[in-house]
Amino acid sequence: MDQDKVKQHLKHFKWPYMLLGLVVLLNLGVFRDLISDWWRDDNYSHGFFIIPVSIAIFWRKRKELTPTVKPSGWGMILFLIGCVGMIFGIAASEYFTTRFSLVLVITGIGLHQLGVENFKKVWFAFFFLFFMIPIPSVIYYSATLPMQLFGSKVTTSVLQMLGVPAIRQGNVIHLPEYSLEVAEACSGLRSLVTLMALGALYGYLFMPGRVLPVILFAATVPIAILTNIIRLLFTAIGAYAISTELAEDFLHEISGIIVFITALFFMLILGVLLKWLRNRFS
User: Fold this and answer.
1) pLDDT tens for residues 119-157?
2) What is the rounded CA–CA span in Å between residue 181 and residue 187?
3) Residue 231 near residue 255, CB atoms below 8 Å
4) Beta-carbon count within 10 A of 24 CB
5) How many angstroms from the chain centroid is the CA of residue 14?
6) How many CB atoms are located within 10 Å of the residue 152 CB?
7) 172 pairs with which residues across the strands?
8) 38-46 long-range contacts, CB within 8 A, separation 24+
9) Where are the domains of the chain?
């Protein structure tokens, strides 16, 4: 944009920018707590990239937007719902509700000002903002134990098939002279939000049509579970075949990186396979 176009753009969108600025100003405490969560918890450090990526996606689509459109009443409804949710969230000190409602408020402003047809072109930029919000504690703790038990059960079965003597007791896998506990951090749930964000972004940018991006996004859940089981297998086999020190020190330190790289590899392979199947049977 040249200087005249920038001035024209700012003049046309003066009120929504002012409203958005007011929303950000009134919710500086919410953003401060979010940034604190991203900084303290490595599993949500991807949150630092969500807003810049959303802005980049919106900017990428800017030339496709129609300058003069009829504002959408649905956007105002979404804005009001978000405002009510923020009021109740702040009053109840419920962080997830407050943060979720804040994204609804921002989305409502965008939908109202852009109109339905324009919003359809940039909807992902607003949807992607939800991935900066950490999983609610009630969901995290209710899902962690089942995933711990599932991971330990499958890992034990695979170890036994490979001839490794292993017995499971709850979320603990007993090997000769070593016991591997599948702790909360090893459940696979902690990296799920990051993988879902990457899966959604990859599907939106590189997968054709509407169905394939959804399939790829949904596949991030089993991919996260599968890669976590691979992590447990490597740790158990390393402890049994080499040394317990290797499993507790070296493998434990790099296993998170291995899991993430493996998950990305599976995601890319699945994307290529889905596009091949689409071209093969279309």
Assistant:
1) 999 999 999 999 999 888 788 777 777 888 888 899 899
2) 10
3) yes
4) 13
5) 32
6) 25
7) 169, 181
8) 38/132, 41/134, 43/190, 43/191, 43/193, 43/194, 44/132, 44/134, 44/193, 44/194, 46/131, 46/132, 46/193, 46/194, 46/197, 46/198
9) 3-134, 138-281
- Exposed e or buried b for every residue in 66-91, given b needs 16+ CB within 10 A? eeeeeebeebeebbeebbebbeebbe
Q: What is the pTM of this model?
A: 0.84
For residues 108 and 75, is the Cβ–Cβ distance under 8 A?
yes
Surface-to-core class of residue 127, CB atoms within 10 Å of its CB (0-12 exposed, 13-18 middle, 19+ buried): middle
State how beta strands 167-169 and 172-175 pair. Answer: antiparallel
pLDDT at res. 184: 61
Cα–Cα distance between 165 and 152 in angstroms, integer? 14
Residues 5, 220: Cα–Cα separation, whole Å: 41
Ranges assigned E (strand) in the chain: 167-169, 172-175, 178-181
- Across the strands, what pairs with 180? 173
> For 158-161, which contacts have Cβ atoms below 8 Å and span 24 or more sequence positions?
158/229, 158/233, 159/233, 159/236, 159/237
